[in-house]
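Box 3.1 A note on notation
Throughout this textbook, protein chains are presented in two layers. The first layer is the amino acid sequence; the second is a token string describing backbone geometry. Keep the layers aligned when reading.
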Amino acid sequence: MNEVYQKSNQILNHNIKWLLTSDIRIKNGSNKGALYGWKNLNPVSFPFIYSEITGYGITTFLWFYAQSNNISALQAAKDCSEWIIKNMKSYLLVARPAGPVKSDLISNLYYAFDNGMIIIGLLNLYKMTKDLDLLKLAERMGRKIIELFFDGDKLTARLDESFNPLIERSKNGNVKWSTISGSYHSKLSIGLLELSRLTGSSLFKKVSDSICNYGISLQKTNGQFMTNPQSDITYLHPHLYSCEGLIYSGLVQSNHSHYSSGLKGVIWAMKQISDDSKGGLQTNTGRHSLEQSDCTAQLLRLLILCRSELQQFVNGADIDNIINRLHLRLLDFYIPVGEGNGGMRYHLNLESACSWCTMFSIQALYLWAKRESQNLKWIDYFI
């Protein structure tokens, strides 16, 4: 077990160094502060700058700073926020690749989810720096999301350049989960409820409760969230976003309905680890689906944070054993990117290091090392 601890800690430190010091983070030029989604290693290329991931970057670097008091991590968070603020239009950020690489994969669209993750980052930076302009900006973003995306029940997933809703066309009866209203929008509760607390406005709480309740309406009795309409296939990444948002809302508001739905979703996800696998979580419930590191790390985090509550509902299942299996499998996704640093692959067969998978994995590895702590609770800077 000591060897596992040493390997896990080494990967954790390499992950942190890679995100903070490598070329995955742009440190100069017009896009200073932004983060690429991933780095292809052979040949080297950086396909996209993601606004969502740069928002996650603020929270990630603030977490580094809170853990280590490393001033360069605080500066990295500020750099992320400055890139975001510079690229805003009408208090929303366009989700499109910036920089030298062009692609049609992500077009010039506004995503509710992306902007919700940016709000969380800006609020975390406000709480760290006490810069009131950041709070005011996050509040304006929150109100703009409600004005343009909220229909009184749920959030529209995306808008075009003129702020008109875009409806994904079905392909073979399926639509991509990130292009439609869904339970994954529950994760916006992290930013909306914090906005409500910091501004005193009940509007943000009302909208948060509505999108969480809508998310619950898409959950089966077995805990499974339906991420793709007209299909029984569930994608684990947005499924676990749903769990994260509902558990957070349940904890903050002592809302039993939200909390219990989130826990049911975690238990269902735990059961998706097949007995013949090495312990990872697959992309979706379809046949021949590949294991994916971000959802593996998401489930690991939630199992550790909610272990005592979950144990009451799993009829003697050995959650500690499942936690350790997930952790060992997560270590297999590590890929060295330079001397003393490296990231996490999205899938095991990819020769690339993914920034957001690395962010999720870092917190999972940290929590695994601290899993026996009696004071372990929801992370203040949850990514």
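The first strand starts at residue 38 and ends at 41. The chain has 13 helices and nine strands.
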